[in-house]
């Protein structure tokens, strides 16, 4: 098994698939473009949903890339050997081209070939979909593994919980997957131990998804006309395996970051278990925050959506930095180490270095004030707990209203001879999460993943809206910072330093409706990036899929790089009406609008 560095594995993976006819495409933004179903890009397939649904990709039917991803569902697990909130996903796709046999043969070759990873076949195990009432047993994948050279005893059939990839939204492309594991050498947890077991004996390193069904609104799984392959290999986990590292944090990718934390704290990464966990949390969270702040569609700390997640991550990192004695303004220093580590691959980090550092320092100062307010509130109420117990609702109010971490409440309570009803806090927090989740599900119901006509019309309206804003505000720096489009309405975030006046909004509305009334054809052309620049197309040129892009033009009104669905003519859109204009985050405004 080769001991590759992170950079070497990136290069090797891309080269392997380029030699097999795949076009290398750039990583998309961490903030999904025109997808209200998720706050962040969570997988390599996420930006490619329109093409998995049948749109023609400018770079062809075989693609490969390294995609920036963020997942925060396991944030409490960060600090163990394998969990990260930010990670890089190696992926290759077939958009209606090759299918299971070729994908599996290439997976086996890359994993075991001496020119590639050179993993001992005896250490590799595989799982396939066992079948159920909605789809049959995946004997095709099983037979493909046997043909590639896998021993039958190393292949396991598992149910949907393990070997089924659902649609990005409520409906959409989905299908069985086959997962690849390496035996870590740890003892089995019992007779029922198998790849996919959580005991740690088997570590998943790759996943081939076979999108051959479309889940409909009534829960049916219908065969797709275009069958796709979507694969994902976690870069950090695979490098850790190849390097024989104890954890993803013990690889070359984290060496400079952990070294900077050690310099600032005066402690050693391995001093004790608690310090090791703190080092890992700070390293992970600052890597994530740095990529969020430095992204092509840069996120700023706020109390909503992506900004809220960013704020939570920064403040959690700061809390652990304080616990190990790091001085003030240390987080921005750690971010410098992250930028130095990754700027050779992700140029946007170097380009946005100043912004990253300034935002981190400002957020740290804000949180210091939050801590002061929280401590004052605790001092005010501490005498009201006659039974010596800070009840769960009061502890949650300190957290929810003042941003005061529960660990700080427990610590201050102990110093004052009190204890905290942590179970009551957890119950209040769970109730809050349930309400938030229900609100988010309602908020994100529908979206571009369903490619409905009304959603496509609202998507087209955002192009006209951006063009009108740039004209009315007389500012070519006005740029999209995100959008949230359902079949009922659109939400459009854009860079602008001040509130848009009512007069300006009326003029924007008038220009959009003027473009709609003109009833011009909405045309789509494929061209190179230089050609798109020459045409004057609006777009984040660093956020592209290969050297060719799609440019949508609406007469003289709008010319923009885009990959989503659109109406055929502007006259199909209806009457455009702005419902609200407000601040989204620092330097970013938000417009909510409908088509009547």
Task: Let me know the average pLDDT.
Answer: 88
**Cα-atom Rg, whole angstroms?**
25 Å
Number of domains: 4
Q: Name the poorly predicted regions.
A: 439-447
Task: Please name the CATH architecture of the largest domain.
Answer: 2-Layer Sandwich
The CATH homology group name of the largest domain:
Bira Bifunctional Protein, Domain 2
Q: What profile does the largest beta sheet have? A: 9 strands, mixed
CATH hierarchy, class of the largest domain: Alpha Beta
Strand content: 15-25%
Give the helix/strand class: alpha+beta
User: What is the subunit organization of this protein?
Assistant: single chain
Number of helices: 18
What percent of residues adopt helix (DSSP H or I)? Answer: 40-55%
Total beta-strand segments: 18
Terminal-residue CA separation: 61 Å
CATH level 3 topology of the largest domain: BirA Bifunctional Protein, domain 2
Provide key terms for this protein.
alpha+beta; 18 strands; four-stranded antiparallel β-sheet; globular; 21% strand; 40% helix
């Amino acid at each position: 098994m080769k001991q590759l560095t992170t950079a070497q594995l990136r290069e090797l993976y891309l080269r392997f698939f380029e030699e097999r006819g795949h076009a290398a495409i750039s990583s998309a933004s961490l903030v999904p473009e025109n997808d209200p179903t998720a706050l962040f890009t969570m997988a390599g397939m996420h930006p490619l949903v329109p093409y998995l649904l049948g749109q023609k990709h400018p770079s062809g039917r075989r693609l490969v890339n390294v995609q920036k991803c963020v997942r925060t569902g396991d944030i409490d697990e960060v600090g163990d050997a394998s969990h990260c909130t930010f990670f890089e996903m190696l992926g290759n796709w077939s958009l209606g081209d090759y299918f299971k046999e070729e994908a599996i043969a290439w997976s086996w070759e890359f994993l075991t070939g001496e020119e590639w990873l050179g993993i001992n076949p005896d250490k590799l195990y595989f799982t396939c979909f066992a079948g159920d009432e909605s789809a049959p047993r995946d004997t095709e994948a099983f037979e493909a593994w046997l043909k590639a050279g896998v021993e039958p005893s190393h292949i396991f059939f598992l149910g949907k919980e393990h070997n089924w990839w659902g649609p990005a939204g409520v409906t959409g492309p989905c299908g069985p997957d086959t997962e690849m594991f390496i035996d870590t050498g740890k003892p089995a947890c019992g007779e029922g131990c198998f790849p996919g077991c959580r005991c740690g004996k088997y570590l998943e390193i790759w996943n081939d998804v076979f999108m051959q069904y479309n889940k409909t609104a009534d829960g049916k799984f219908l065969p797709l006309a275009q069958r796709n392959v979507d694969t994902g290999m976690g870069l950090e986990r695979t490098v850790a395996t190849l390097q024989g590292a104890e954890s993803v944090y013990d690889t070359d990718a984290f060496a400079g970051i952990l070294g900077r934390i050690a310099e600032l704290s005066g402690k050693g990464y391995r001093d004790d278990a608690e310090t090791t966990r703190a080092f890992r949390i700070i390293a992970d969270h600052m890597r994530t925050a740095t990529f969020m702040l430095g992204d092509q569609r840069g996120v700023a700390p706020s109390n909503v959506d992506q900004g809220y997640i960013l704020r939570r991550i920064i403040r959690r990192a700061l809390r652990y930095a304080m616990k190990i004695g790091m001085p003030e303004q240390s987080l921005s220093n750690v971010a410098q180490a992250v930028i130095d580590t990754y700027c050779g691959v992700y140029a946007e980090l170097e380009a946005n270095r100043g912004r990253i550092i300034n935002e981190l320092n400002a957020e740290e100062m804000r949180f210091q004030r939050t801590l002061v307010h929280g401590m004052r509130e605790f001092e005010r109420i501490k005498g009201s707990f006659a039974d010596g117990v800070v009840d769960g609702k009061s502890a949650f109010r300190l957290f929810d209203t003042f941003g005061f971490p529960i660990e700080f409440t427990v610590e201050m309570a102990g110093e004052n001879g009190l204890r905290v009803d942590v179970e009551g806090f957890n119950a209040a927090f769970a109730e809050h999460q349930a309400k938030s989740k229900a609100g988010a599900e309602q908020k994100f119901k529908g979206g571009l993943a369903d490619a409905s006509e009304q959603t496509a019309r609202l998507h087209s309206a955002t192009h006209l809206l951006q063009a009108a804003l740039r004209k009315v505000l007389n500012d070519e720096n006005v740029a999209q910072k995100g959008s949230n489009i359902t079949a009922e309405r659109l939400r459009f975030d854009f860079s602008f330093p001040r509130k848009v006046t009512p007069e300006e909004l009326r003029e924007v509305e008038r220009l959009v409706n003027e473009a709609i009334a003109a009833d011009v054809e909405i045309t789509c052309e494929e061209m190179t990036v230089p050609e798109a620049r020459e045409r004057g197309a609006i777009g984040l040129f660093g956020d592209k899929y290969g050297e060719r892009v799609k440019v949508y033009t609406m007469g003289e009104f709008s010319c923009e790089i885009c990959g989503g669905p659109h109406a055929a003519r502007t006259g199909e859109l209806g009457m455009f009406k702005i419902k609200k204009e407000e601040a989204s985050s620092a330097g970013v405004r938000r417009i909510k609008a409908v088509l009547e």
